[in-house]
Structure formats: C-alpha cells, structure tokens
Amino acid sequence: MTPARIVVVGTGYVGLTTGACLASLGHNVTCVDVDRAKVSRLSAGRVDILEPGLADLVHRGLATGRLRFVVGARDAVRDAQAVFLCVPTPMGAGGSADLRAVEVVTAEIGDVLPAGCALVTKSTVPVGTSKRIQAMVGRTDVPVVSNPEFLREGTAVADFLGPDRIVVGSDDLAAARWVGELYAELDAPVVVADAASAELVKYAANCYLALKLSYVNSIAELCERLGADIALVTEGMGYDRRIGRTFLKPGPGWGGSCLPKDTSALVKVAESVNYDFTMLTSAINENIAQRDRIVAKIAGAVGGTLAGARIGVLGLAFKAGTNDLRDSPALAVSSVLCALGAELIAYDPAVDGEIAGMTVVDDAYQVAKDADAVVVLTEWAEFKHLDWAAMAELMDGIDVVDTRNLLDPRVIVDAGLSWQGVGRPRAAARIKVS
Ligand code: UGA
In the predicted model, is pLDDT for residue 11 greater than 90? Predict the structure, then answer.
C-alpha cells in the first residue's frame, strides 16, 4: 500500500513500538507525547525502554526521516490519515480501566482531525469505548477503529513485525479494512470485525492466558500434594495441539502491566451487564493464593518463621527480558516476606536503584552472602549459569526455592544445596552442611 501519514499519541512501550514499527513498514509516522524531555531524548535517538530491536528501529526511522517525535497532538494530527491512541489505560478505582488519558486526547484533537482520518484505539479499552469516542468526537467523517495490540514486553518488536493476527474492528467496516491494510507488508491474517468484537478480543485473549496460568499453578499445587511432577504433566498436556505448549509454566503468579489490569477490567465489564464471571474471579483469587503458597514454601525453607531470616532474592522484574516492575509477582512475594520480618537482599540484572523493604545489590553472589535461603523469583537465564558451588559457600543455609523451575536441580544438589521448585519433587542436599 502507499505509505500513510500516521500519528501515534503516547510513546510508552506500545506507542513507541507501534510508531517505530509502522515507520519501518514505510509509513510516515509522527509520535506525540506530553513529556517534553522524553520527546527530546527520543528525537536524539535515546530509548529508555528495554525492548530488543526497538532502539535500532528508532534510529533507522529518524535517519530515514520516516519517524519523528513532537510535543502537542493538536498540531500533529492536522494532516494525518490515521491517529493511533497509545496512551495508558491503567486500572482505575474499583478495577475498571481508567480512560481519562484517552478522553483527554480525544477532546484535544477531535475537532481538528481531517475528514476521513481514522481514529484508532491501540490501548486496551473496555468494550464500548469506540462508540464512546465516536460520540465524543461527534463527527461522522472520522471513523473510530479498534486495533488492539498483542505485544509482549521483551519481544514487542518481534511480535509487532511477526504477529499471529491483526484485529481491526469498527462500525465502519471500510475504515477497519483500510487500517488492516496499513499492515499489508506483514504476512498475517487480518480479522475484520465490528468495534465491540475487536475490543473484546483483546480482553478475551489476555484473560484466557491468565486462566491458563492459574490453571497450571493449581495443577502444580496438585502435583505437590499427589507426588507428581508438573514438568512431565505439562509436557504430556502440551503435545495436544488444542492445548499447545506455551503458557504452561507455573511460577510465583502472573503479573505485569497487562494481565492483572485486564482480568480485573473484564470482571467489571461483565458486572456491568449483570454477568458474574466467576471463572475469571477464581483465576484472580488463585493468583493471590499462589503468591501465598510461595511465601509459605519460603517460610518452610527457613524453618517455619520468616522473622529475622535473611533471604537472597534473585529476580525482581515481572518476567525475564524486561526491567518492568509493575505488578511484579517477585515484588508481591517480597513485600509479604518483608512484612513477615525477613531481611531481603535482592539482585535483578535489569533493575537497580532503591526499593522499599529490601537491599538491592548489583551482583548475584552478594545475594547469597550469609543467606538462610535463596529464592529465584524471575526466570533470568543467567541465574542458571551462576557458580552454584560458590553460592553454596557464601550461604548460611542450604535451601534454594526456585519459583520458576528455572534451575537444574542436579546442579543445585551437586553444589551441596537443597532445591525445591513449584509442582516438582524436591531435590535434597546430599552433603549435610553444618
Ligand atoms: C501480555 C500478553 O501476553 C500479550 O499478548 C499482550 O499484548 C500484553 O499482555 C498486553 O496486554 O499488552 P506481557 O504483559 O508482556 O504480555 O507478559 P506475558 O508474557 O503474557 O507474561 C505475563 C505473566 O505471566 C508474567 O508474570 C509471566 O512471568 C507469567 N507467565 C507467563 C508464567 O508464569 N508462565 C508462563 O508460562 C508464561
């Protein structure tokens, strides 16, 4: 298709990825933000977000002139053919999505959008938002299109450029199709839908992933009680193509900036139409229970009481490959440990700075020093390759609690330590350390 003039409002990880990737597909993209300092950093090619490939795309976009960064949406949109809204929609009071940022931008640009310009929502917005935006803009010559993103943090660029599908939805189907064509360069199926269906796809997908993870965490708990091994159970399940092999890893609970907020929001959306989405509520409750079971496991590893125990924490980010701490299960577990009186020494390869309730160090071995137990909370591959014999030397206790089933239990046992994961048989230390 011929390159389009696109404006992306919001330069967070979704907006910046969207802008840089659309520019790499040949479109002329202007990214807008209210944060003047951020706009000058990005204009100079400085990317703060840890996202593989993103900085390169930004540099290339700036060099080719197809990507630019400005402050002020009102001026930027005046000759746009499509405006993508990529502003935050955080969890608001009571669990619903907070749409204030979307509303502010819509009010700012509504009357200056050129006729025919598609106003596209990329941010995750509750079903019905397209209609609400359409009413706010109050114009029939500006179609509103929902085009949800399915980007995972840490692989956002790869996900954008190699998507499983593109979803575009609008009550103006021609506009939806046109937005779908912006991705023509990518070899992906395009689902064209009405606005409500497109909006619901995003929630339905994220909530399904959350359900899957809570289910797996429950099966892992059953494994522990029944003497089975979750690694073998999920291997056996995963060969079933209807189930698939991904999103079957148990852990300290699911977190991040999306799954917790989207599950709460969908429960609220369901309530608004008098549907009690008990299955989803159970998944959310199970996620809290999982955190508590992990805390109990760690308490068990230090003899039952956390007060005064020194715990070495490996990993703080909500998953490996990102420095994002939002709704991180690692922080949720840590804060309970801290509240119960444990002393926490933590290391994460992508996180530095101060975090309340713990001492953050810049080296994994410092975490082990005098620790009663070491706990893996984020699945960074580098933790697998630590010198565990050296870790054992530094530790006071012998317990390693691996909440991500990341480590090789044999390596831990050979180092003279005890290993316990989630839903897997324990591997006890062979050598008794005094
Ligand atoms: C999620 C979705 O996967 C994306 O498709 C979606 O676009 C994005 O939210 C969004 O709404 O923007 P993300 O938040 O980056 O992406 O994180 P995930 O990779 O989905 O992981 C979520 C949580 O589940 C993490 O805490 C992770 O550690 C946990 N997880 C994931 C497991 O415990 N086990 C697994 O097997 C997979």
Answer: yes
Please check whether the two domains, 5-193 and 228-430, share a CATH topology.
Answer: yes
Q: Where are the domains of the chain?
A: 5-193, 228-430
The strand pairing partners of 167, in sequence order, are: 191
Q: What is the pLDDT of residues 148-172, one digit of tens each?
A: 999 998 899 999 999 999 999 999 9
- Pure H helices in 376-420: 388-394, 409-414
CATH number for the region 228-430 comes to: 3.40.50.720
User: CA nearest 77: which of 50, 45, 104, 114?
Assistant: 114
CA distance 352 to 326: 15
**346 band by pLDDT with thresholds 50, 70 and 90:** very high
> Please, are residues 209 and 283 in contact by the beta-carbon 8 Å criterion?
no
Please tell me the distance from the alpha carbon of residue 418 to that of residue 396, in angstroms, as a whole number. 13
Give distance in angstroms: CA of 370 to centre of ligand 1: 34
pTM over 0.85: yes
Residue whose CA is at the smallest distance from ligand 1 atom 19: 152
State percent of the chain over pLDDT 90.
89
Q: Which CATH superfamily is domain 5-193 in?
A: NAD(P)-binding Rossmann-like Domain (3.40.50.720)
Query: Looking at residue 96, what is its pLDDT?
Result: 78
> How far, in Å, from the CA of 309 to the mean position of ligand 1?
31
